[in-house]
Amino acid sequence: MQTTANRFQPGFANTPETDPTPLHVEGRFPDWLSGVLVRNGPGTFDLKHTRYRHWFDGLALLHSFAFADGAVTYTSRYLHSPAYHADMASGRISFRGFASDPCRSLFKRAMSLFTPTPEGMNANVNITRLGDNIIAMTETPMAIAFDPRTLETLRPYGYDDGREGTERLQGSVTTAHPHYDPSRRLAYNYLLHFGMQSRYQVIAIDGGTRRRLASIQTAHPAYIHSFGMTERYLILVEFPLVLPSPLTILLGDKPFIENYRWQPERGATFHIIDKENGSVAARAEADAFFAFHHINAFERDGEIVVDLSAYDDARLIDELRLDHLRSADPKITTGRLRRCRIPLSGGRATYETIGADAIELPRIHYRAHNGRAYRFAYGAGTRSADADFLNQLVKIDTETGAGVVWHEADCYPGEPVFVPTPDGRAEDDGVILSVVLDGAAGSSFLLALDAQTFTEIARARTPVPIPFGFHGQYFDL
Ligand code: CO
Q1: What is the pTM of this model?
Q2: Could you tell me the distance, in angstroms and rounded to a whole number, from the CA of residue 175 to the centre of ligand 1?
Q3: 4-475 adopts what CATH topology?
Q4: What is the Cα–Cα distance from 364 to 433, expressed in whole angstroms?
Q5: What is the residue extent of each domain of the chain?
Q6: Which of 96, 308, 340, 399 is the 20 to 30 Å CA partner of 17?
Q7: How far is the CA of 3 from the centre of ligand 1 (A)?
C-alpha cells in the first residue's frame, strides 16, 4: 500500500460497501426531495498484487442517497462487472483500462475493447435511464443495468439493433454522457469505430434500439468524452488529442489513452449535425483546446453557442494518475467556461472565456434548459491556481460572468447535481447536491445548497469516507 501525505487520501483509498444506513442530518433537506441521488465512481484502487494507475480505472462503486420526509439513507454497492469478479479474484488487472493494463500473462486484449462482448465493463463513469432501465456506463459500449433502490447489479445492458434484419452497429468507444431529447423521445450518443478508415458514428437511441444518424470518417480519431446538443443539432468536437495510427490501439498492448497524442497543430474541429436527417449543417475549425465536458449549447441568430469546460491542452489526463494524486504535493489544472460560437453560414469558430472561476464536472438545469438558452452553470472548481484537487463548488452566471462559490477549509466537493423544485419558476429554483470529502475529519458528507443563494441548507455525514467519483443522477422513483 502506498503511503500518502496529502489532505484527501481517503478519496483514492479502497472503500468497503455500506449497508443501508440512515444518516444524521444537520439542517434540513427539503420535504419535496423524495427521490434518490445515485452516484458512480471508483471504489477500489489497489488490488492484492497490483494497483490501477489512473483515477478513471478503479472498480465501480455505486452510491445512493435516498430521501424521504427530510431523512436520508446512504447505501453503496460494488458493480458486479466481469472486471470486478476477475480482478478481485485474481488480485490483478484482467482487462485493458483507460490508463491501466493487465500483466501480459493475463492480457486479454481481444476481450477488452474491440469485440462487443465480453469486455471488462467496469462501468464507473456515469448513470442514465434508458427506457425502463437504469444503467451504469463507461466509454466502452456495453453498459450494466442495476436496481436504483438496492444498487444490486442486474444484467449487462445490450442494445437490440442487429435483430430482425436491422444493421448491428459496430464500434468500440462511446461516451458515458448520452443526451436525451424529450421532444423527439430519443437519446443520442456517439460510437467510434476503429479501422483503416475510422468513423465517428452519431447514433439515435430509441428504447434499446440504436440507429446510425451520421457517420464521419477520420484517419486520426480524437478522444471525445462528451458532446453537445441544441434543439436541432448535435455538436461533436474533435480535440487535437488523437490516435496517430488507429492500428496501435488495435494491435498494440498499451492502455487505451496512452495510444493518443496531443497534436495542437491540428486545432479543434466542430461538427454540427442535424438531428432531423444526420447531415453536417456546419463544420468549423478552432484554436487547439481540450475538454472532457460540454456544459450546454443552443442556437442563436444564425450561430451555435457551445459552452464547455475548456483546457489549453490535455495535461490534466496525466495529472489524474493515481501516483500523482496520492503524492505529498499534487497539483491539478482546472477548466474554464469557454463559450464557442460556430457560424452556421461557415467560417471559423470563435470563443470567449466567461467568468473568473474554474469549472469542471459541470451541471445545469438539464430538463428545462438543455439545448436551449440558459443562464446558470454549476460545477466543482479550484480555489487557486496551485490547488491540489477540486476544492470548491461554483455557480457561474453565463450572462454576466459573475461567480458564487461554496468553500470550506480542507473540503473537496464532487460534481454538483441540480434538482429543481417542483413547480419552480426560476432557472435556479432548486437544490444542489454534492458529496464532499472532509479532509480534516477524514470523512464525507452529502451537502445540499440552495441553488439560488448557494448557501448551505443541510448536510449528512456518511459512516465511511466516500472516494472521489465522477457523475451521478437524481431520480424520482
Ligand atoms: Co464525464
Answers
A1: 0.95
A2: 8
A3: Methylamine Dehydrogenase; Chain H (2.130.10)
A4: 12
A5: 4-475
A6: 96
A7: 28
